[in-house]
Every structure is written in structure tokens, then in C-alpha cells.
Amino acid sequence: MTSTVLAIVLAVASATAMLALAPAARAETAYRYWTYWSVTDGAWRFATIGPASAVPVDGSVEGWRFAITSAAGSAGDAPEANPATAFDSICGGTAAQPGVKRVALAIDFGMPQHAPDGERYPGYISTCVFGEQVA
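Given the sequence above, the corresponding C-alpha cells read:
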């Protein structure tokens, strides 16, 4: 009986020591911010440059989504609009004009539970914006 009790005590002590000495699990840091996206080859891509450096071309789609995510974003954080049809559904009724580019802009306010305290969740909006070809 004594050897059984000793074995149990040693097993519990070993398990406790392993748990106490094991490295803590590291959770990825999450941020609440406006993520910036563009459509490439029919799919949303998390932008690797900021909007101040981006020069979209005629027919492109840019998106913003408010999310709680890592600094690198994830596919689940992309705007609501279908990237394969976004330009046609947002700017499709607007004819091309010489010297003017059309860019579909999708603004997705994310999930209601991600809104800061006291803020109203407005949902999703989109618009077709125009600019000079060199802009």
C-alpha cells in the first residue's frame, strides 16, 4: 500500500511540476482598427502598403473593414463585398471616361460587437469614386 501511495504522490508531483514549469501559451496580440484591403486576381488581399502610398488603377476595388485582428489581418477580416463581383456591382453603372479612373470603394464597419462602447454600428456602404488617371 505504501508503494502505491508513493507512486500516486510522485505522479501528482511530477504532473504539477510539468504544468508549473511549462512555458505559457502565447496568444497573438489583437488590435482594433480599420484594416485596408484591395482586390487582386478576384480575391481580397490585405494591403501591404498604406492608402497614402496606394495608386489604384481604373477598375480596381479598395476596401476598408473595422476589425479586431492581428497586425497582418486575416481573410475573415476582409470587407463584406464579394471581391469577384465588387467592381461591377459598385461601379458597373458608371461609364468609363477618358482621363478619369473609377475605383470601387467598399467600407465595412465590421461586426456590431466590435464597435467601440457607445458607438452605433452603421453596417456596410459602398460607392464608386472617380479621380484623375495619375492620382
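Residues 4-22 have pLDDT under 50 and may be disordered. Try to locate this feature in the C-alpha cell string yourself.
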